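Chain A, query sequence.
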Amino acid sequence: MVRRRSRVEIIMQILEYLSENCSKPTKMATALNLAYDRLDQMLQQLRGSGLVVYDGDSFCISSKGLELLREYQRFRRLAKSLGIDV
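Chain A, predicted structure.
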């Protein structure tokens, strides 16, 4: 049985992907295995929260998005060290 990704996991995967390079939504949808309309909706929400920015062509992670991604990764490492599967 395949486990579905939670909304938080998808958001963090988007931020992680954008932390490497800015990207167009179509390329991201393919790389992250997401439907384009779902990705677009999430990108607009992330943009509204200030976690990503749009330069008219591509989406990029913001400094606020990088900070959130780092804290999430730190949390996952701590949880893993305590034997908690997150």
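The chain has a mean pLDDT of 95. The chain has four helices and two strands.
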